[in-house]
Amino acid sequence: MQPSNFHALFDLSPNPYLVMTPDFRILDANQAYLDVTHRTIEQLRGRDIFEAFPAREDGSEDESSLMLRESLQRVLRYRRRDALPLIRYGVGRDTPQGRIFEERFWSATHTPIFDEAGEVGCILQHTEDVTELHRLRSRQHREEADAVVLEHRVIQRVEAVERRNRALSEEAAALRQLFEQAPGFICVLRGPRHVFEMANEAYLLLIGRRDILGRSVREVLPELEGQSLEGVLDHIFATGERFVGHAEPVSLRRQSGAPLEERFVDLLYQPVFARDGSVSGIFVQGHDVTQQCRAQRELQCHKDHLESLVAERTDALRRAEDERRLAEHALLQSQKMEALGKLTGGVAHDFNNVLQVIASNLQLLKQLAADDARSARRIQSALAGVDRGARLASHLLAFARKQPLAPVALHPGRLLRDMDDMLRRALGESVELETVLGDDLWNTLVDLNFLENALLNLAINARDAMQGQGRLTIEARNVTLDEFYAARQPDVKPGQYVMIAVSDTGAGMAPATIERAFEPFFTTKPDGMGTGLGLSMVYGFVKQSEGHIAIYSKPGEGTTVRMYLPRSLRAEPVVRIETAATAVGGSETILVVEDDPEVREAVVDTLSALGYLVLKAGDALSALSVIESGVRVDLLFTDVVMPGPLRSPDLAMRARQLQPDIEVLFTSGHTESAIVHGGRLDVGVALLSKPYRQEELAGKIRHMFNNREQVFQLRAVLQKSVRVPVRANPDASELL
Q: Model-level pTM?
């Protein structure tokens, strides 16, 4: 056959043919092949057959492509025709909706075509698309499998029915035996008159009668008339509905002439049907549960009582647990604040000593540099820094509850009225201030200056929280904190208090912020906008005043800080005496007792510059030796805390015994229990807190000497008029 004729047959053959090289690259394909594969000759020619017809859309090979590769290898190896019954290929078709990747099944035959040298020159693939045949066979196989499953299920159903029938037969036999031997009562009633046809021993014992067969229920049990079960039998016979009763009460006369006895029965009324479907009788089965019901009633009474006791106990335990958790939390918070207080108190004490050295030397330098304006300005600036440090230390001491307080009886209403102008200036014009005073406000015993500072701090904090705009409300009223409230706050004593509340309309606080609000140096303000000592100072002042403080706040709902100050029965003083310190010296002799050498030298230089004759000692024993030597000392100026076995208060007592006219002035960086109890100075004790200025020291000493001079003059007058001995250093009550 001529090649041209071969190509004509190849192209016109209705069977799909493909010609490929020994390395499986496509040389040619007839039109039937192109139609089956939905490809063009340009898309196939020169491409590897596995690349042109990938088994999967992602190009990876599967079992079909591996079988095809093996078949082609066998053709090359054995040089004979090899048939592949079924291979699977993915064929892509372009449609208006896009390219569709379709799974197809082919039956392929590969025939080697030899060249002139007798080698395999190419491979002819005859392909037949058997996709539909494969799908038809698969469907047939599935249907056959479904038929087998269905047949198996039918057999199982038949077997189940047979087992059920056997079980029903066995159940019927068991029911017959149960009727004969059942411990529960059973009877069978026939006809619309409900005549007893059968009854077991338990039923006869229940009703207390035996001659019942052949008689109707109304004849045997006339006492049922009017009871709840009377019409049930007629209803069941008429409707064919069964009735189940649980613990049904029935009153029976168990002996002729006996009184009715209440019994409780669990029962089942089951209609018995005839072949035509009509009700021919009623099957009755049940149990006498009278004893169980009576026991259950009694048990229920005990159970209700027990549940009531358990509920009460549970509520009490829950309340106790809630109170314990609250108390535990409050105790932990109190312990944390106490630890912070001890730390800040110690730091403030040492800081005050340092500030005192700096302040004393700066004041001495200020006198030396009086003619140098530039140096004087710098010294004055440094002194201003000392003042700021002193205020910082004062806030720390207030938080630590180590600031000496001088409490007086105070009416909160008068204080708030006196502070109104100052508060309005501090808040600014954009903040509305409202003061609400309760009726018949009690007095409280507090340090006036510290309370004013506390209110001012709270007002400024509120102004900042409102960003300078809003409403600030200050409320004062009488309250009583009961034992229940005090039990949840370990540092609160039940009793009467004056409550002063400061409320704002600001941003409010989150619970985590409230937890730390009283800690020193904690602040939510931006850097440089606050020290975080305002609330801590207020906290320490209120606690040292034996009061209570609490914060109530929610984000977006503003904040209220409530100070509870103990009620005082004392009357408020009519006049408050203000003493101004002046830098006036004198010629008296002063004994300075200070263990810190730098502080001691600074104080000695300051007092010497004021004209006083100054003696000095590094501890209390050394100071006592000076006094015991006979040297006249007009004033003993001593630090509260001194090293050695002799305490400063004991030194003061011995000094007054040896020199009755001596004045004693204590100084300290914070309060100590030796001269302060409950955060308040002992009566008759004079204290100058560190750091102090030269003017404050000079004014305090001069004031004490002036008071002593007045006492001397009053003593002389009394001795002349009364002629009675007068003790040195009498207290105010003796003079009056």
A: 0.38
